[in-house]
Amino acid sequence: MNAARPSLISGGSLCGRAAAWSRRHMAASTDPYLLRTLLWCGRCDVPMHPHPHPHCGERTYKCPLGCRKVPLSAEAIEAVTWTAAERRATLSGIAPPFRKSVLEQLLVKVILRANAPDDLRYIWRT
Q1: Low-confidence ranges of the chain (pLDDT < 70)
Q2: Are 25 and 98 a contacting pair, CB within 8 Å?
Q3: Do 107 and 120 meet the contact criterion of CB atoms below 8 Å apart?
Q4: pLDDT tens digits for 25-59?
Q5: Which of 2, 111, 113, 120 has the fewest CB atoms in 10 Å of its CB?
Q6: pTM exceeds 0.90 for this model
Q7: Three-state SS at 86
Q8: What's the rounded Cα separation, in Å, for the pair 88 and 90?
Q9: What angle do CA 29, 33, 38 make, to 5 degrees?
């Protein structure tokens, strides 16, 4: 049986409150894709897949159903999402290996609505 993951947030809801982050509640990740389980295609309502660009190796995300012909930059989408998370909670001092864990605690999903890395909709945990 899996033990429940302890919350990274103390004091309940994030709205209007500073979150208390502790490394003992976070898992470091070596996964280069911060949104691997969180990014969804807004057209198809399916999870987007990490997709290294075949020619240059750039990290990208792509819809597995092929509705988006051009892979989208993972770096750009993740940067916009992290900025949105910073506006939602106090995240100063979170080292990059712990960002995936933090985002998984804050978000239910990120929905990519158009072919632009900044056209995102966030479903936040409450």
Answers
A1: 1-25
A2: no
A3: no
A4: 678 999 999 999 999 999 999 999 999 877 888 99
A5: 2
A6: no
A7: helix
A8: 7
A9: 100
